[in-house]
Write a structure and sequence with these properties.
single chain, 3 helices, about 65% helix, elongated
Amino acid sequence: MSNIERMTVVFPEPMAAQIRAAVKDGEYASTSEVVREAVRLWSGRRRLRDEEIAALRRAWDAGKASGIDGPHDMKKIIREAMTAARQPTGVRPE
């Protein structure tokens, strides 16, 4: 059996009422079960956030490592994009 630590948690009355109602309605066996599920969901959300941040950092690093930097001629970029948009699919101007 895993180690269990008893903790005291205080909830505002509206939250406490929701927890009690979930137990009363049979959705959960106990208030502790409700809190454990909430912590599991919170932990999962934190893990996903950490993964998203790591993915953004990798994308940032890849962008920086691509070597493309410095001033850009936006008029030229727009002209090239407009020209490419007018070309039939798969055909790009040289």
